[in-house]
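Order emerges. One example.
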Amino acid sequence: MGVFKYLTAFWTAAAVYAVLSFLAGAMGLSAYRELLVERDKQRANMEKLGLVNETLENTKNSLLYDRDTIAVYARELGYGGRDERFVRIVGLGGVKRPAVRPGEVVRAYRPEFMDDRLIKIIALSAGGAVFALLLVFDALKRARG
């Protein structure tokens, strides 16, 4: 039984390493949650970009196939038909369409996690502490009896 109880120090180190890796390691729950948040940000950005793309696609199609749309855009730029006359009022400015924003850059950040070396150091320290306690208890037992 003497040698086998010292194996609890090894099992303690292994258990501490496994738990810390599972909770705070590079592939642990904490990093996984952060990756899920980043995934949701990227999906929301993709949906926004899809709406911008749809708007631009509709504008392109209307400019390609609809003469009235072309005429409206031309009038906004100051062009007119042969039988049209313009009265320009100085100071009012022209009609300006709001520019379609092409979207924004959403940067993906690396998740925060505990370094594997630190997890190993903590696990080995915990195993060493258990081993030292077992040695102290054995020494006290021998001193008493």
